[in-house]
């Protein structure tokens, strides 16, 4: 492949690097403002549109099994058209702003963020002209091309949802038609790839910009595509290399500072955070980086075929000082943070708005009786170990002593954990307050005592959420009300769910405080769950947690917790089936499996390699 040079002897890649570097501060600020705007305005509007579509389709909860039916509803199709139109408008505004910036950069000028926003907005508004209407379809077709590296990255790291596979298998003729149509349209898109440049820099309409792009790219499509793939590969190599280096430095540092297991757990969490930060930066910069190549090719080819260059009108702006640059970025970050707070606290936010869409929900990990493989079950050390090993929740059991204290204990008899043949309802708390329930596990936990629910609340507040199982013995005086009072005393309603095998216990909790979340524990789950008004969730043996059952429960407005899941294959199945909480004896394995599902298995393997 022979790169074409411009008047300064630079090939398309050199031009692309120059375009990125010349006005990099304006590009970063513009993209930050654009992404904050999309997050703050467009995203919640989009979520509300989805909510309206669900209501019009008569669906309360969008489960995997209902996605295809939902999409094929006439009302959904109409709303989808509106969404695609908005997407095209916003995308064109971003693309045009970036192309304008590069046009100015190529001609030696500097461009302001305001000028970029103005140009992008005016380009988007030109879509209202009849001879530009078809530009909408082209922009939508261009999005997968400009985001090719991101799509390929997700495709290799994420598992295809079951409903997608089922649709592809059952609608093979439709799938084939869509695939062929996309391939044909993509071929046209590559012929027209420089439309945006002509549309923006030379103010051509869509028809004329198509013709100009075809003339510019004539017989050069293969080289154009190969160069683009190479450019994307360089970008990914830089990102992956940087990510690996940062993780290596952090992991090795933690390994020398902390004990091995804790270092591993923290490294996993840090690796996920860095991965998410990297994804965010990548998605913010993917359009500027992609269009740097397209525009570099555009200028190199124009020079090669001696096509007239359109010199942009621009006003030299003052260079940003470092302090001014930091101030602008700080304002953007503050606005973003404010909008996130609004989303979390008000009903129109994306987090609440999407709560009835299954594949947008996150699976939580609950350590069964704390991390009971590392410390005595249902004790403070076991709960601390759960925190250290990245559990979101601990599942714990509560019972009532003779004098009405709420203690954390699984068995009604003290024999197994304390060597005492007394039932819990026959002793006052002061009689067992100093009983050793740790020595049976190992000498390391000698003098560990039975904690009260209040003690657990104190140590977990702000650090860990609680799945509190009420175990009724028939000798309780006021156990349910006491649990409600303790939760309210420590202001932990949002961080607790109260579960029980006994429906009457859940009914008492709901009657006392309807805002406290409850879960009904079932050995066997089947049938219609909509009538279970006293439970917000179903907690079931994972062997019964089929995708269909979880879909039915979700459609009835219930979350689904599964227990007790201790192997990677089963954990992965529960994540795929849409379980909301996985209760496990091995929170580390569950976190590794979930992280592999959310990012890529290579991240977990990389951290393990660095720990050796």
Structural class: alpha/beta
Q: Helix count, per DSSP?
A: 25
Distance between the termini: 43 Å
In percent, how helical is the residue content? 55-70%
Quick check: average pLDDT? 83
β-strand percent reads: 5-15%
SSE order and pairing:
Blueprint: H1 12-22, H2 24-56, H3 67-71, H4 74-106, H5 113-125, H6 135-146, H7 148-157, H8 162-170, H9 172-191, H10 195-201, H11 206-217, H12 221-257, H13 260-304, H14 322-345, H15 350-353, E1 364-368, H16 380-388, E2 393-400, E3 406-408, H17 415-418, H18 429-432, H19 453-460, E4 465-470, H20 479-489, E5 496-500, H21 503-512, E6 517-522, E7 537-541, H22 547-555, E8 559-563, H23 568-577, E9 581-584, H24 587-598, H25 601-611
Parallel strand pairs: 1-2, 1-9, 2-4, 4-5, 5-6, 6-7, 7-8, 8-9
Antiparallel strand pairs: 2-3
Helix pairs in contact: 1-4, 1-13, 2-4, 2-5, 2-14, 4-5, 4-6, 4-10, 4-13, 6-9, 10-11, 12-13, 12-25, 13-25, 20-21, 23-24, 24-25
Walk me through what this model shows.
It contains 25 helices and nine strands. The two termini are 43 Å apart. It has an eight-stranded parallel barrel with strand order 1-2-4-5-6-7-8-9, surrounded by five helices. The protein is an alpha/beta fold and 612 residues long.
Features:
612 residues; eight-stranded parallel beta barrel; single chain; alpha/beta; 25 helices; 8% strand
């Amino acid at each position: 492949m022979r790169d074409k040079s411009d008047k300064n002897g630079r090939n398309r890649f050199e031009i692309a690097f120059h375009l990125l570097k010349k006005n990099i501060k304006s590009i970063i600020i513009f993209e930050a403002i654009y992404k904050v705007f999309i997050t703050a305005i467009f995203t919640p509007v989009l979520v509300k549109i989805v909510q309206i579509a669900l209501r019009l389709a008569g669906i309360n909860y969008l489960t995997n099994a209902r996605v295809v039916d939902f999409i094929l509803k006439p009302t959904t199709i109409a709303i989808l058209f509106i969404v695609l139109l908005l997407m095209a408008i916003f995308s064109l505004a971003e693309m045009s702003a970036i192309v304008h910036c590069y046009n100015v950069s190529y001609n030696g000028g500097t461009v302001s963020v305001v000028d970029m926003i103005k140009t992008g907005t005016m380009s988007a508004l030109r879509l209202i002209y009849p001879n530009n209407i078809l530009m909408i379809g082209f922009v939508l077709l261009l999005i997968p091309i400009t985001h090719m590296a991101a799509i390929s990255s997700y495709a290799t790291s994420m598992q295809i949802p079951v409903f997608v596979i089922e649709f592809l298998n059952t609608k093979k003729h439709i799938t084939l038609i869509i695939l062929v149509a996309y391939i044909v349209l993509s071929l046209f898109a590559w012929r027209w790839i420089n439309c945006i440049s002509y549309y923006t820099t030379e103010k051509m309409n869509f028809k004329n910009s198509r013709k100009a792009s075809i003339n510019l790219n004539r017989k050069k499509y293969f080289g154009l595509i190969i160069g683009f793939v190479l450019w994307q590969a360089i970008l990914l190599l830089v990102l992956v290399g940087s990510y690996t280096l940062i993780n290596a430095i952090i992991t090795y540092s933690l390994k020398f500072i902390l004990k091995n297991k804790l270092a591993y757990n923290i490294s996993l969490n840090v690796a996920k955070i860095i991965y998410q930060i990297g994804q965010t930066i990548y998605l913010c910069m993917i359009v500027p980086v992609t269009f740097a190549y397209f525009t570099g090719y555009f200028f190199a080819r124009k020079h090669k075929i001696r096509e007239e260059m359109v010199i942009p009108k621009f006003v030299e702006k003052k260079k940003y000082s470092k302090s001014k640059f930091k101030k602008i970025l700080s304002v953007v970050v503050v606005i973003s943070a404010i909008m996130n707070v609004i989303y979390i606290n008000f009903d129109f936010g994306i987090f609440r708005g999407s709560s009835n869409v299954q594949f947008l929900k996150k699976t939580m990990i609950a350590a069964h009786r704390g991390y009971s493989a590392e410390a005595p079950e249902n004790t403070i050390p076991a709960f601390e170990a759960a925190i250290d090993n990245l559990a979101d929740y601990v599942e714990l059991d509560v019972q009532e002593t003779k004098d009405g204290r709420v203690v954390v204990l699984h068995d009604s008899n003290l024999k197994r954990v304390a060597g005492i043949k007394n039932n819990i309802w026959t002793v006052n708390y002061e009689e067992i307050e100093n009983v050793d329930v740790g020595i049976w596990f190992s000498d390391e936990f000698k003098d560990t005592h039975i904690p009260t629910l209040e003690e657990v609340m104190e140590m977990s507040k702000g650090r860990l959420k609680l799945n509190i199982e009420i175990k009724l013995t028939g000798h309780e005086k006021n156990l349910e009300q006491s649990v409600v009072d303790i939760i309210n005393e420590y202001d932990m309603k949002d961080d607790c769910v109260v579960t029980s095998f006994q429906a009457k216990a859940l009914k008492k909790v709901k009657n006392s405080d309807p805002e406290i979340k409850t879960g009904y524990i079932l050995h066997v789950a089947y049938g219609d769950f909509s009538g279970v008004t006293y439970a917000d969730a179903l907690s079931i043996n994972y062997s019964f947690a089929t995708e269909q059952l979880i879909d039915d429960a979700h459609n009835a407005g219930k979350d689904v917790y599964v227990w007790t899941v201790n192997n990677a294959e089963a954990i992965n199945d529960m994540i795929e089936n849409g379980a909301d909480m996985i209760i496990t004896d091995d929170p580390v394995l569950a976190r590794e499996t979930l992280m592999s599902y959310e990012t890529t298995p290579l991240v977990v393997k990389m951290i393990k390699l660095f720990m050796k």
